[in-house]
Amino acid sequence: MTAEEISALEEQATRTARSQRGWAVWWRFVETWAGLTVAVLSALAGVTVLAAEQYQGPAAVLALTSSALGAVLGFSRPADQARKAETLALLCEGFERRARQARTLALPDLDAEDSRRLLSTLTERWETIRWDDLQDQLDRHGPQGP
């Protein structure tokens, strides 16, 4: 029974890590392309303002669109979101390794009570890896790994 429970925790960690890697890629995509769009819109607005007075309306629209998109980027902080997702993925991958090692290396040598204690320790560790507590994890572990 304990091996199945540890295996379930391991699988959950694997799925969570994979999901967080996907979110990190998404946030890096948003950061890159939205930032590029802001830069292009700002440049177009600047060029249009210098061109002629008849283009002041379109220049204003471009400038407002650029500033609105910049504000959204500033609020959503895609680089921070990507870093959080990458860090959480690393933490989950570390947990997955610990769970697999516990299941394959330690578990066969333990009696029932020690197996339950191992499962309890792993469960407590899994419960500390939550998005709500991510800031504490980020303070202790950078994107380079736990």
What does this structure look like?
The protein is mostly helical and 146 residues long. It contains 5 helices and no strands. Helix 1 runs antiparallel to helix 3.
Distance between the termini: 29 Å
Instruction: Please provide the count of β strands.
Output: 0
Structural class assignment = mainly alpha
Total of DSSP H or I helical runs spanning 4+ residues: 5
Using the CA coordinates, give the radius of gyration.
Answer: 24 Å
Could you state the oligomeric state of the chains shown?
single chain
**Major sheet characteristics:** none
- SSE order, as H and E? HHHHH
- Mass-distribution shape: rod-shaped
Low-pLDDT segments: none
Beta-strand percent range: under 5%
Helix content: over 70%
Mean pLDDT: 78
List the defining traits of the structure above.
146 residues, mainly alpha, 5 helices, rod-shaped
Strands, helices and their partners?
Elements: H1 2-51, H2 56-76, H3 78-106, H4 112-128, H5 134-140
